[in-house]
Each structure stands twice: as C-alpha cells, then as structure tokens.
Amino acid sequence: MDLHSYPRAEHGRFEQILNQFLLKSLHVILDSRVPASSPPSRSVEVRKSDKWFNLVLGDRPAAMESLSFWNRSLMEPMIIDVILVTETQNTLSDHDSLATLGPEMLTETVVERWVVQYEPLRSVAPQIVDASYKKTYKKSIVQLRTIYSMLRLLPAYKAFRKLCSVNRSCHFDINYKVYSFCSPFSREEERSMKKYNFTPVDAQQGRLSVSVIYREDLSDFNLDSGMSCRPEIITDYVGSPLTPPMRAFPSTSSVKGARATSFPIRVRDSTSASPFQRPHSWASGLHRDGYSQQYQAFDLSPPLNRSPYEYSISPTDVQSNRIQTQRLHAYHRSLSDDLLSPPLSSSPSPSPPAYFSAGNPIHTRMHSETAPVSIPHPMLGRSPRYLSPNLSDSSRHSLPPLSPRNTKYDPSPHGSPSGIRSIKKQDSLRAGELCSVPIHLGQKISRDAKEDSGRFSSLQSSNSSPRFGFSRSSSRLSFQDDFGDFDFSCPFIVDDVDSNDFQTSQNLDSANVSEVTSQSSSTVKKSQDVAVGALVHMLKTAPPLRQDSGHYTSYSSEVRPEKEVGTFSDFFKPRKTSDALEELKVYREMKDVLLSRSAARIAGRENTGT
Amino acid sequence: MVIGSLATLNLPMVVDLIGIFELKGPYCTLTMTDWFLQALSVIPRGSWGDVARRFTMIRWEVEHFEIREVLRCILHTVLFHRALGLVRPKDVDLELFEITYVQCGDMEVERKIDEKIDQFIDRVEKHPNKKNQICLSFYEVKNKQATWFTNKVERLYWEQWYINLNVAQHPKGHSGKSNYSKIVVGPGDTAAEARTARRAALESSLRDVLFQIIRFVNDKKDHVPPIPNLEGVSFPYEITISSSSDSAFGMDMFKRMLQTGHPSMLS
C-alpha cells in the first residue's frame, strides 16, 4: 500500500480492518460449509475479537486454528475452496461411510470457490476514492452481512445442512482448502459454474473485493439419494439417551433346543463395522465422527438387554450368531471394565444353569465373552455355584438386576455377592427402560417353559443355578414379576443360604416343601426330568403356606424348595434346635445330590458337546 | 424528460425508483431495468450523502397462508443488512419453502415484524380487492427548527422498501389465470400438482428476490448514515401498511409519470 497519502494511524487501521475482514470472512465461510465436530458455544458474553464487523459468530471453527493465516501477506488473495467429496460411481456399495474408502475411490469436486482479496489501486481503474477507514469499515460490515446471507442461498448450503443433521449417514463429505494461489478451473468446469461478485468496498488505495464461483446444480452428486441416507433399523436399540453409548451387548449365543424369540436377528455383512460404536437414534450423523458406521453389526442379540430371562435363539441362528460373536470379540475386549460391571468382567465364566434340555451354550459362551443372558439351560449347569446365570458370565451384565437376595446365593468362587449386588443395583436403574420387550419375551418364554416342563425335570437334581427360584420371589423388578410365572425351576438351593433370606419367599415355597416331603421317597427313583416336572407342578398347585414347622424336617434330594423354607409365620414360631439341625442335615444332603448330579451332567454335556 | 420533471420537485432527497421489477410469469422473474436507474437518479444538492433509495417490488399474488412466510423472509433479510449494530445472526428455515434466511437475532425486531405482518393480513382480509402494500423505511431523525406551524421532529427517510402483495382470489382448482402462465398446467393435471408447481415457482421467485436484496443492499450503501454505537438495529425504522388509495409512490405514480410526462409532486 502507498503510505504516502495517508497518515500512519490511518494506514494501520486499514491494515487491521483488512486483516480482520479476511479472518472474519474465513470464519463465516467455514462455519457455513464445514460441519463442526462440536456444537458451537453460545455464551452470552461476546468476546472483543468477535465484535469485529458487528457480527457475533461465536468460537472460531477448529479448522481455522490450523491455518497459518497470520503468515499470509495481506496483499495475497485468500482463496477458499469448498470441496464435495463423494464416491466414484464404480465404488457405490453398501458401506457406511466415506472413511472406509480409499482415496482412489473418492471424487473431490470444487463446488464453491471464494476469493477474498485486496486489490491495490493501480490494478483497478484509477479514480479518486475517498475512503476513510470509518467508511471502509461501515461498508465492510454490510458486505460481510451479504456474504453471510449469500452462503445460505447458494446450493452448497443444502449439502452442508444434510451433513449437519442428526441421524444422517450421508455418503458424501465436505472438505475445504485455503490457499493463496490456485489453478483456474477448466473450461468444462467453468461452464457448469456461475460467478457472483460482491460489490467491492473502497479501501485505502484500493478496494476489498469478494467473489464466489459456485456450482449451481448439485443434482449430479445424488446428495438426496436413498443410498446415502437410507433409513436404518437399529435392532439393538436401547431406547434412551441415558444409556451409556458404549455398552457391550451380549451376543446371542445359540442355545440348542432353545426357542426362537420373536426378535429377528439381523446378520450384517458390513465390512467396516466400527466395534466402538453402537447405533443410537440420537447420535450425531456427522461422518467425521464415524457415526455413520453405527448402524451396524451389534445386532447379535435381540435388541434389548437386561432381559432377565433372555430369549433364546433357534438353532438355525446359531451359525450366524457365532460369526457375529467372533466379530464382537474385538469389540468386547476393547471395552474396558468400566463398561461392564466389575464382577462380570472378562472371565468367560461358565454359563448359568440352563434349563432347556437342548443346546450347548457352554462352548459358544466360552468363545464369546458376551454370551447372552439367556434362559438358564438345564444342561449347562456347571455347578450350583452359579446362582445367576447372567451374573456369572461376563456378558451377563445385560440381565436385569436380580433380586438382592439372590446374591447371597452366589458362591464366592465366582463372584462376590457384593459385586453382583452392585450390578443388580446398576441394572435396576435400567430395568424400567426395558419394559415392553422383556415382558413380551417373558411371556413367550413362560409359555415355552411350561410346555417344556418335562425338560425341567432334568434340572431337579442338577446343580443348576437356583437363581430362578429366587427370582420368583423377587419383586424388585417389575419385569421379574412378569416372569414370575415362568417355571425356571431351579430346584436346588445351594448351601450357605441364610434362612432369613427366605422371609420374603412366596407362599408356594412352604407348600412345596410339604408336598416334597411326602413324596420324597417315591421321587428318588423317578427320572430326573420327571422329578423336576413334578416339582414344578407342585409348586404351581400348592396351597398357601402353612405354619407347620414339621414340614422342614426332611427333604428329598430332588425337591428343592424354590425358595426357602418357610414363611414369615414359620420363623416366628419357636423352633427347637433339633429342628434346625435336621433341617441343616436335609440341606446338606440336597447339596450333595445337586453337586454330584450337576457334575455328572456337565461331564456328559462336554462329551457330547456341539 | 423524466429527469427534467423530477428536477422541479421540491424534495430534500432524491428518490430512485430502483428495482422496479417486471412481471414475467406467475411470480415474476425479477429483472432490473438499468436504464431506469440512471434516468431517475438525481442529486439535488450534489451530495451523495443526501441520496435516498427506494426499492419497490412488483406486486405478487400469493396464497393467504403464504403471506406470513414471504413477508417475514423479505423483511428480516432487509433488516439484517441494515441493522448494522452488533448482532448475533440467527438462521431461520422457512416452513413452506426450502429457503433459509437470516434474522438479526433481536427479539424486539421479531416481535415488531410479526405484529405488522398480522396487521397486514388483517388489512388484506378486510380489503381483498385493494392493492395492499407494506413498507419498511429507515430514517434519520433531525430536529427541525420549530416554526409556528410545526414543532416536531423531522424524519428523513434514507431508504424505503415497498413490498406489494395480493392474496390470490382464484377459486379452488382454477388454473387458467394469466398469473400462472409460466406454469404449463395441462387439462389432466390435478389441483395438487398445480399447487405444487405454483409453490415451486414462488420459491424460485422468492429466492430471486433475496438475491436481489443482497445485491442492492451491497450496491447501494453510500447513502447509509454512520452507524451509531448501538446493538442490533442501529438505525430507526418503521413499517407501514397502506392500501392503493394511500400509496404515494406506487406503480400507479410511475405509470402516470411515464405516460403523461407531467411533473408530479412527490409526497
């Protein structure tokens, strides 16, 4: 600039205005074309730097921070290219985001080119320009407003809005480049573009000019195509933004002979599933964050977790589920323990006692750390120690919290009751969220369970988890109550149970006990399945609890009071020490039987194994 | 000839009938007649500072339910470019059209515009056959020397925007009006398709208007007074509603001037 005509102060002001104009116009353009990774902060207080040109824009975009525009000469033009990144035609495929494609599969098209520059006087028609810095500043304010408005009228704004919209998985991206020199467009490109020149602002010894060359028609890029923003069905939708975003979903391992549930299991063959993202309906659709990958692959399990008695999958789904369980290995391993309740972390713990006669979920569960919380399988009972099928498995976190009573039954080897209790508490918070699905699930399963009561008989003497017995009495979770009609007869209670814990047991329990004692001798000789079935039947049909302490004197090994012994009234009755001793003896016998039978069962199952 | 006519007018400012748009098609493709600009630009005192600008939009015909959106869009766009105080721009998406316009983020301005639009809609409903007009004016307040006739503050309008809107009066399903001549509506087309086509044409025209406003506010800014140190709308403004009988500088005046060539007093 010519310093001679203007005093230094004036010159300094011009330079400052010019510099700030470049910065502000860059800010406006990037804000309106490049989706921000974080939402803009709208603080009430306006920073001094933001007051330039009386246009409050908020924080500068991250993109600007990386540009070394301070090294730029004010005489050099600032050229900003807005680039639309799309897939090349021959790579159109069902993938989730542009990030998964290599650079050779992407096409970059300049859809807008903004040129902001100071043109010295000698390059324009010589004329007397009376431009004090105040007038220049006033006119540049107006010009910035027009730039701001124009950015919203140009076709590329629509693409920008699409990218910014939530829940969109778009197959295009917007990039930008800022430089001082660029190669002009080819003739072909120019033909498809229009130019708009903003009225220059007279400045000291020159003028400040802004122009834009833009593509008028973006229909060639299929920005609205269904492929780019196709609706996705999130099968593992958790239903609430309050749910931690990175929960591990248990894979639905196959349970042989288990009933199929009403939830279809979608097998995705997408290649680039990010194991670290789950689809959420509320998640941002910004491609930058890779959220476009989220509609993906976590559909092993039927959607909702926390189902206490999780559905089981039909055998036909086993294979697909195994594939997916393996794919989830990386995902689940990557999840830190904070995602999983501490006691449930990592160990590929034995599956819970399963009450279905078929199925061998043990192996699948061993493979996958996310074995589903399924309905306990009678054949899988490894030990009576595992009170809670869901708790003993690392993936069991998804089960709803069991009754705290149940924790006391959990044998120490595989988990601390306190830890499980904490999980339960944690889970109970989420119980309410999963109302509809688990309930339906439970109803279906309860029907199945009843139909398969014969299979339950096999559990009679197994060491399967007694969890379900306890759960029946639990009223802490609403959906557990819904499942209360199930007959996951887990007939055997493990020792170390404090009889006081049975105070809240259902009426059925004591009645069951009384029935059992009368039949104890005859049922020993029956097959295991029959015994269990009989027990179930008894439990269902038993009259209310009676206050008869004599009922506790003897028990058969097959019959396990689902809940414990006694009702409130029983415990208030004065009891003799001998009664207690006898009771203890009975329990011990039951325990031994259970242990031996479950060991035998496990051995047999491992031999037959899938 | 026209210049000579205008030169005889006793006006403190020059009024440019800039932006008289010719109707082309049902919702007008806005065009600017350059010759008209030059013909009417007169500077009475040789000072650019006393130039005033008037922008008049050709009369549009819109549906009743479209009035609010069209007026909001246009008025806010003009105000955003003339509210030169500190503003937090606010993007607003139109509901009926795929257009985003910018407000200056001032709640008082928003309230005032909505109030005036309500009044305009009432006026249109009461006088559907009149040519109703809404005018956005920016002025400076100058204390006039008190005389024994007048003792009030004078407003010197330095910019005025006239928006003329008519509510479509056609019966439902009728598609033969000349206003829709741009849309080829075949005899087999349904009313819904005609409405869609109409809506698309209106959206295109509205976008054109916004482009034109942006161009004008940037082209013609020499006459903008110095910006006071205020937030938001820095210049006083007013929004007035008038009917055809009240309009001082409508198309009627222009047509009269062109046809007769007689000098007219500009009020």
From TrEMBL, chain A:
Q: Which domain of life is it from?
A: Eukaryota
List, alphabetically, the InterPro entries matched. Answer: ATG13 (IPR040182), Atg13_N (IPR018731), HORMA_dom_sf (IPR036570)
User: Is this entry keyworded Ion transport?
Assistant: no
- Could you list the residue ranges that cross the membrane? none
Any single GO BP term: piecemeal microautophagy of the nucleus
Q: Which Pfam families match?
A: ATG13
Record keywords, A-Z: Autophagy
Q: Where is this region: Disordered?
A: 338-427, 451-472
Entry GO terms, CC: Atg1/ULK1 kinase complex; cytosol; phagophore assembly site
**Stored Gene3D superfamilies:** HORMA domain (3.30.900.10)
Composition bias type Low complexity, residue spans: 338-348, 391-400, 461-472
- Give all residue intervals belonging to the Autophagy-related protein 13 N-terminal domain: 19-218
Record has Cytoplasm as a keyword: no
Q: PANTHER family attached here?
A: AUTOPHAGY-RELATED PROTEIN 13 (PTHR13430:SF4), PTHR13430
Protein name (Swiss-Prot/TrEMBL): Autophagy-related protein 13
TrEMBL record, chain B:
GO BP, one example?
Answer: autophagosome assembly
One Pfam family linked to the record:
ATG101
- What InterPro entries does this protein map onto? ATG101 (IPR012445)
Supply the alphabetized keyword list.
Answer: Autophagy
Q: Does the keyword Zinc-finger apply?
A: no
A GO molecular-function annotation: protein kinase binding
This protein is called: Autophagy-related protein 101
Q: Which Gene Ontology cellular-component terms appear in the entry?
A: Atg1/ULK1 kinase complex; phagophore assembly site
Judging by the UniProt lineage, the source's domain of life is: Eukaryota
Which family is this protein grouped under? Answer: Belongs to the ATG101 family.
